[in-house]
Amino acid sequence: MSSEDGWPDVPGDTALTIRIPEADAFVRAPFPAHITVLYPFLPVARITPEVHAELAALFADRGPLDLTFAEFRRYPGVLYLPPAPEDPVRALTRAVRERWPEAVPYRGVFGPEGLDPHLTLANDEGPETYEAAYDALERELRPMLPVTARVGSVRLIVTDGRVWEDKAVYELGRSPAQPAPLAPLAQPVRPASPAQVLRAESTALSRRS
Q1: What value, to the nearest 5°, has the Cα angle with vertex 77 and ends 72 and 79?
Q2: Would residue 107 be called left, alpha or beta, if left means φ above 0 and alpha means ψ between -120 and 50 degrees?
Q3: Which residues fall within 8 angstroms of residue 186, CB to CB, at 6 or more apart?
Q4: Are 153 and 169 within 8 A, CB to CB?
Q5: Are 24 and 189 in contact (CB under 8 A)?
Q6: For the range 92-97, what are the long-range contacts, defined as Cβ-Cβ under 8 Å and sequence gap of 24 or more?
Q7: 31 secondary structure, DSSP code
Q8: Distances in whole angstroms, Cα of residue 190 to Cα of each of 17, 27, 28, 50
Q9: Alpha helices in the chain (DSSP H)
Q10: What CA dihedral angle connects 83, 174, 187 and 126, to 10 degrees?
């Protein structure tokens, strides 16, 4: 990947994400429906039992979330669903960042606050085709809105630079003796590189400024 593509996923990168299986049928990108709480988090070499315990306690202090996805939004080249309400998701990110301030969202490309919470549906269209393609996709998917989801956990995932796999799960509002490690995915999925979203969303953000 060239430097103009943004950044590659570095082997050992981790992220904290919320899975939204209720929206999997909407997603046209090569990854499951999810909202990113923080990417990247700490390198996997720093994920010690003590870090696991702190994450478990941090998320146990916050209850499950009830989220609704009722509208489409776009960046150039990106179609996504914003969660409502957004504030509880932002609060999770803020709590993690207060404890680990070195974990800067999106490596600081979008400033210290990162991006708005979002569930990406498609991001593979170029500037010449995305408007018409996403108009058609919205027409196809709109009858299935709204999507509602009860979120009860946050997942820690890790990449080898090619694929992302589950590492651990932390329950919201419930403190286990220790977080339950997850077995590797039977068929790891390769999420689209952040580079394409980076180009599209940075364009959108620059237009807002």
Answers
A1: 20
A2: left
A3: none
A4: yes
A5: no
A6: 92/16, 92/37, 92/59, 92/62, 92/154, 93/37, 93/38, 95/58, 95/62, 96/16, 96/37, 96/38, 96/41, 96/55, 96/58, 97/38
A7: S
A8: 15, 14, 13, 29
A9: 49-60, 87-99, 130-141, 194-208
A10: 20
pLDDT in tens, 45-101: 999 999 999 999 999 999 999 999 999 999 878 899 999 999 999 999 999 999 999
**Burial class of residue 90 (count of CB atoms within 10 Å of its CB; 0-12, 13-18, 19+):** middle
The strand ranges marked E within the chain are: 14-19, 34-38, 65-69, 73-75, 78-81, 119-122, 147-151, 153-159, 164-171, 180-181
- Are residues 80 and 198 in contact, defined by beta-carbon separation less than 8 angstroms? no
Q: What phi and psi, each to the nearest 5 degrees, are found at residue 185? A: -60, 140
> Where do we find the tokens 């990947």?
1
pLDDT at 18 over 90: yes
